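Suppose a classmate hands you a notebook page containing two proteins, each written out with its sequence and a corresponding row of structure tokens. How would you begin to make sense of it? This section walks through that situation. The first entry is reproduced here exactly as it would appear on such a page.
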Amino acid sequence: MVRQAPTAPRPTPPTTGSESRPCSTTPTTAIWRMPFPTTSCDLSPVTGTTPGAEFQRVVEVLQDNVDFDIDVNASVFETNIRVVGGLLSAHLLSKKAGVEVEAGWPCSGPLLRMAEEAARKLLPAFQTPTGMPYGTVNLLHGVNPGETPVTCTAGIGTFIVEFATLSSLTGDPVFEDVARVALMRLWESRSDIGLVGNHIDVLTGKWVAQDAGIGAGVDSYFEYLVKGAILLQDKKLMAMFLEYNKAIRNYTRFDDWYLWVQMYKGTVSMPVFQSLEAYWPGLQSLIGDIDNAMRTFLNYYTVWKQFGGLPEFYNIPQGYTVEKREGYPLRPELIESAMYLYRATGDPTLLELGRDAVESIEKISKVECGFATIKDLRDHKLDNRMESFFLAETVKYLYLLFDPTNFIHNNGSTFDEVITPYGECILGAGGYIFNTEAHPIDPAALHCCRRLKEEQWEVEALMREFYSLKRNRSRFQRKTVSSGPWEPPTGRFSSPENHDRTGEKKPAKQKMPLLSCPSQPFTAKLALLGQVFLDSS
């Protein structure tokens, strides 16, 4: 499958976006002209199918042809998970791919700089009264006037993995900060029974769509609470998810299926299973809820065996597809869950699902130049398109399911020592966190650059202190000037507090230093960081 579907561009400027046309071997008219390989260039290091020279060529093509200063409207969510996530993952896997990295890696590198540039283009979307981002941003002009303020829940809560990684690698806290604010605003907007809807107004914070579930429009918000908690060792994020998990079990779970309910009342609104929900058993495995995960997974697997794939919508009471939702665009979610659960249990049933997936995809969707979306699972008609997530996720998870010795599964028995300007660090020891587009992030890399992050914050704290002192001095000078020139006292003890009512002198109070040793002047503190700011008013 990896070799059947092209994963790298030719040296001409790439024009494809999030999908290609595998039947006619032509590109689509892109959502926006971002190279297809940003979503799949980390596939080759994982599968070992591309030599280092080819990976280097892909990097060069991206550098030469990607321009973020273009007048194009882009999905904030999709740009983050596909472009920022793909570039970060490829950056962290560069050495594994056999590419010579620059000095200072993983805290610097061309792909990291591209990821940072792309992420900065998204920051204007977060400038809302609630801190929750708009769904669309213009890469050149920011948020367009009149842009709809309605954004799906996943489009607000799916940034912490990429943005926290970016902050740790670059030392700029702004990315992690905006991602955390967005997460917290969603948490504060949950209903009294602990559920969230699927679309919200980012200006007012009011819910526009009040159907609550674990699928489309919500899914990766829950996913990122768990993965963000693991990546950052953040107990608060995990506690938030566990509270949601209780509400989800109480109000949406029926016979190990998960339905859609009204977020305030808990009444069933849609008794359907969406193929996007198939990630849930894998997420349950990450929190150790294996029994519930396996029961739900087996429900989903029965649907797969019925059709040879998962329809977009499946009516649970009727046991059949929903009209106009019969297609299967080769989504990865059930295979993703199989990979996670197999790592946790070793149950051979999960390998059977993997085998069935390979056989059905090969039999039904394989075409001249790739694998085509199945338009209708009832008759297996095809659509002339191949989504980028097929390579980025579906193929990758299948490969990892059948490759138990892959470095992604490392348990710490092997690792790479890397020397950075901030000291020695360990990479590649395992524990990779996949973003929602299956781009693996090595959590150890975040600690490699932690000193860079701490230095950045230290400088910012010192600068705030410096400007605070400047403002205070200016206010004091303005106050003394406005009250007239200061006159020195005529007598040695002329201050009233040094005389009692009888006119006798009182002994002067002895001033005691607050510290046992003298404090350094402020300019000397700054000089410790290698730069002196003249303390002039």
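The notebook's second entry, a different protein, reads as follows.
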Amino acid sequence: MGLVRTLGLALSYWRPHLRLGLILLVILTIPQGFKAFFSYSQRLIVDRGLLGHDAALLWKVLAAVSGTYILAMAAVMLGDYLGTYIGAAILNGVRRQMYEHMQRLSVGYYAEMRSGDLVARFTSDLADVQKSLTSRLVDSVVAVLGLLINLPVAFLIDWRLALVMVFGTPLAGLGTRVFGRRAAAARYALKQEEARIASTVQETVRAQPVVKVFGLTGWILERFERQLGELARRFIRAEFLADVVGNASSFGVLVSQVIVLGVGAFMAFEGHLTTGALVAFLSLHATVSKETYDLTKKVIPGLISSSGGLQRIQELLAQPVDVRDAPEAVPMPRIQGPLRMENVRFGYSPEHPVLTDVELVIAPGQRVALVGPSGSGKSTVLQMLLRFYDPQAGRVLVDGQDLRRFTLASYHEQVAAVFQDTFLFAGTVRENIGLGKLGASDEEIVAAARAAEVHDVIAALPDGYETQVGELGGRLSGGQRQRLAIARAVLRDPAILLLDEATSALDPSTEAAINATLEQLSAGRMVVTVTHRLASARSADKIFVLSGGRVVECGTHEELLLRGELYRSLWEKQSGIEVSPDGLHGSIDPGRLGAIPILAGLEPASREALARRFVFERHEAGHEVVREGTAGDRFYVIARGKVEVVLGADGDERRLAVLTDGDFFGELALLADTPRVATVRTLQPSAFLTLGKQDFQDLLRHFPQVREVVDQAIRLRALKPVGVLG
């Protein structure tokens, strides 16, 4: 961002404060006028007061200088206060504008943007903007005023020297013209790197449990050291170019001073200029040089330094709002139903569609579930129903009307959602529930808590409803956080209740209890549940099965099982795996092992012996179950949870798949001494049933007939491309 653009943006923020700005301009003129008068007074003092022996004039001039000095100092103090007052108002306006714009941006923007980068725009970037919009802009106005006021006085003293000064002063702008654009680009690059550092620090704070458990301190420090090296390089370049701009300008000021001094001294020596005029002009030129020096050495380099932060803030404010109210949008009346998606097409990028011709209808009071493999588009459908995005083709209809006919606020007033990652604000239990309906009475909040079956839990807390939940609700258990989220949703009394994997991260007993609560609260509402766990969907009035961004099946649980298509295969994949209510133990049915290709040929007795050798494991979110390149010695079946499969080194990973309940990986570890070909990491608290290579080899020794079956499976496996999970 160039200097002219920076100044233009800075001035635009002053426009709402134009009246106070004009008053400040008048006030700033007073001290600059005093400086010009003080310089001119020296001509009167020397030529007429001292050399002309006019004592009366001398005393009058000195009295005038003293009086105007007091006035100038008062103006300086008043100007400082007024400038600070306007600056605070401007900065709050910028903060408000940024924050309000952020609330209008789509969910997709936040998915792509690192949170540390956004925080940096509110901290270090805004600190730079504070200087450019207030002190540096005022300093530049002061400097320009000084030049404009002193220039006529210079011509009044001697027009010839004034011309010399006018033609010499542009030398001060040499540095800005030559190096200004490069200095601004370097400053912007520095701000970008500072934002990356902020994101890294924020990420590290949240990742401390993983860092400590896996001994990643050394890796974290090494990565941070590399970033610090890059930050240092960009800092050196930005500061050096800023200094070059200032020093080149200072050199131009010095050259101008030498020229004026030389010409003035020669004119006085030849008798073309009085001594008083020379003294006055040199004093005035010193003032002009000071203003020019400040402008070129401090103000302009300072504005260039601030341009990076200002540009980053402008980038945020320029982000388009993807979902907004249409000009003719009207408030939505109470929703009766149905809720419908009609030939909806959508993709986060035009070349990669996520939903294709999606058709579904949710009748009034109906409970539906959206199920399907990972990446099938379930959560995207939910986001369309929440109107986080608008369709690129097709329509979302409520009561037969396109959702875009109504204002966002009036629609969201009748919608509530409970997500897998429950977000609680730092504050009390009462405040967090009350956010479901701003202004709700204490009685309404307690009633919502009772409906969510969390009132007794709250009453048992140290301070009851006034208990602080901590940052992100960290002082509460996962089940308690989820029930508070349900209470918040119930308080809203929504016509549409949307549940996105709301219980998938909980232990079985807590999940069952919360599902029972949700079923009771669903009466009279349209409820849409997204889940990968089909046991949570079986009681729904209707189940929509998605695959590849399309609805491929629809019906009740029993109807879909009878059809024997995708839903049935998903159900069978998740069947035969048991987890205890407390989530601490689990087992796999011998018959379920028959669905695993390398074990499909085993006799029942062999599968039964093998099933007893599986070990139950639990891991929190973010845990690396296996790491690419390491030796494999265990086979995993996901009992509950969700994992991602990624290829590549840290910082350059590529996600290959997301696996959920009933999926398995690592089977090649049982068959051969091969390194892991991918990294598998938990996305939520997950439980596994695992089989060690040694246990499998022991089975082969006890059941020799199994060897032939396994060898045949290995030969078949070798004929296929190497899988991502081997």
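A careful reader of the second entry would note: The chain has three domains: 3-317, 339-563, 577-719.
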